[in-house]
């Protein structure tokens, strides 16, 4: 289950360029009125939303009462792996409840890592080349 009531979201690889998928995916969350933060190491904000340089910095800013986040990943597999590795090193893995790897953002190494090392349930990891821009609407409707 990727979506859940009360869950917050992050777009890893959010772009300031409106033509890139990292920006389109961020706007999808905004248009669906979901609480989302862009993760972009070189932007202070994306689409008017405060950006965080790393996924870990965003997790550290969450309040203790925030249960978990869902992460949409748009970065290349090696960048994705390094971001999740940092989350584990900083002992923040328990804050990640679900991950949606967008097409081109994953390989078997990073998928295995988030399931085995971060402890994200296999049922909460989407890594089948399904794009949120195509299937997000129906998944959101089915899960919330």
TrEMBL record:
It comes from the Eukaryota. GO terms for molecular function: ligase activity. Pfam families: CoA_binding_2. Keywords: Ligase. Gene3D superfamilies: NAD(P)-binding Rossmann-like Domain (3.40.50.720). Residues 2-105 form the CoA-binding domain. PANTHER family: COA-BINDING DOMAIN-CONTAINING PROTEIN (PTHR33303:SF2), CYTOPLASMIC PROTEIN-RELATED (PTHR33303). This is Acetate--CoA ligase [ADP-forming] I. It comes from Pichia kudriavzevii.
